[in-house]
């Protein structure tokens, strides 16, 4: 003979309709509204995208931020040099010093 | 109760999957009710506490550090919430006013009497004895499951159950003798 006590009069599931209503109310309270949930979920996903984009942008700009700006080089392409090369002004100036 | 299939269910509920939340509610709402009943001893209050505890637990699943031990974590929450309610003295007031008036009416007078006797007999037990006997004899939990939910050892769970049943029988016999006389 089982020693088990018959506590079935205390079983809340005896009133099946009432119990099911309690289950549904509990589930509804446990879940946030679906609209809020989808917005929250979308924002959570966007957060990681924004973080990743910021990290890539920072990596791209890092070399520029770390190196000192270089002085502009005087190249053969500068207008002043081209003019001087194309004229005898330099030789004229040099010859005038000898007089 | 299989702890192995519990962790994936809890993790799915954490992600907000409705099916997982509903599965956990269906599986654990009655045990939560029984633990609450063992503290407050008023069925309507126990329903309210079970619903509140279950809903709060689902919303804060991230605080359940070991999903496989969800049952113990939930029952601790239920017990603490019920104890807080008792301390606030709301249960004693409603009990005095006749909380049974809030329950669904039943035409079965014998059932009403038996239920009242069982609740009164449970009052003769300690809170721990009530919890163990309700979880074992009504919810059919095994002693390992009860041990995980209550913090008792399996051996203690068996001992507590044995004592609880003996006390229940004695108290019920007393109440039935009073009814007859």
Can you describe this structure?
The complex is a heterodimer of chains A (99) and B (181). By secondary structure, chain A is mostly helical. Helices cover 66% and strands 0% of the residues of chain A. Chain A is built from 4 helices and no strands. Chain A starts with 15 loop residues before the first helix and ends with a helix. The relative contact order of chain A is 0.04. The longest helix of chain A has 33 residues. The radius of gyration of chain A is 42 Å and the shape is rod-shaped. By secondary structure, chain B is mainly α. Helix content of chain B is 76%, strand content 0%. Chain B contains 9 helices and no strands. In chain B, helix 2 crosses helix 4 and helix 7 crosses helix 9. The termini of chain B are far apart. Chains A and B meet through helix 1 of A and helix 2, helix 3, helix 6, helix 7 and helix 9 of B.
State the separation between the terminal residues of chain A, measured CA to CA: 139 Å
Q: Report the count of strand segments of chain A.
A: 0
DSSP strand tally of chain B? 0
The shape of chain A, in one word, is: rod-shaped
Helix content class of chain B:
over 70%
Q: Compute the separation of the termini of chain B in Å.
A: 44 Å
Radius of gyration of chain B: 17 Å
Poorly predicted residue ranges of chain A: none
The topology string of helices and strands of chain A comes to HHHH
Total helical elements of chain B: 9
Structural class of chain B: mainly alpha
Average pLDDT taken over every residue of chain B:
89
> Which percent band covers the strand fraction of chain A?
under 5%
Structural class computed from helices and strand pairing of chain A:
mainly alpha
Write the layout of secondary structure elements.
The complex is a heterodimer of chains A (99) and B (181).
Chain A: H1 16-30, H2 34-66, H3 79-85, H4 89-98
Chain B: H1 3-14, H2 18-40, H3 43-59, H4 70-87, H5 90-97, H6 109-122, H7 127-137, H8 143-150, H9 154-180
């Amino acid at each position: 003979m089982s020693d088990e006590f018959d506590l079935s009069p205390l079983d809340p599931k005896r009133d099946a309709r009432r119990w099911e209503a309690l289950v549904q109310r509990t589930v509804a309270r446990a879940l946030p509204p679906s609209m809020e949930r989808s917005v929250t979920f979308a924002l959570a996903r966007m957060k990681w995208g924004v973080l990743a984009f910021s990290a890539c942008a920072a990596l791209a700009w890092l070399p520029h931020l770390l190196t000192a700006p270089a002085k502009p080089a005087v190249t053969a392409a500068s207008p002043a040099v081209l003019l001087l090369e194309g004229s005898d002004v330099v030789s004229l100036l040099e010859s005038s010093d000898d007089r | 109760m299989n702890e192995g299939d519990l962790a994936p269910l809890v993790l799915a509920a954490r992600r907000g999957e409705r099916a997982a939340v509903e599965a956990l509610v269906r599986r654990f709402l009655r045990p939560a009710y029984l633990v609450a009943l063992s503290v407050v001893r008023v069925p309507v209050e126990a329903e309210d506490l079970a619903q509140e505890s279950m809903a709060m637990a689902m919303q804060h699943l991230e605080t359940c550090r070991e999903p496989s031990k969800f049952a113990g974590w939930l029952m601790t929450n239920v017990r603490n919430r019920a104890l807080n309610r008792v301390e606030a003295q709301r249960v004693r007031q409603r009990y005095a006013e006749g909380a049974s008036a809030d329950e669904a009416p039943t035409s079965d007078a014998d059932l009403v009497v038996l239920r009242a006797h069982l609740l009164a007999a449970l009052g003769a037990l300690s809170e721990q004895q009530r919890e163990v006997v309700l979880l074992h004899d009504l919810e059919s939990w095994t002693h390992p499951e009860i041990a995980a939910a209550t913090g008792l050892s399996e051996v203690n769970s068996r001992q507590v159950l044995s004592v609880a049943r003996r006390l229940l029988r004695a108290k019920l016999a007393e109440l039935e003798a009073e009814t007859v006389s």
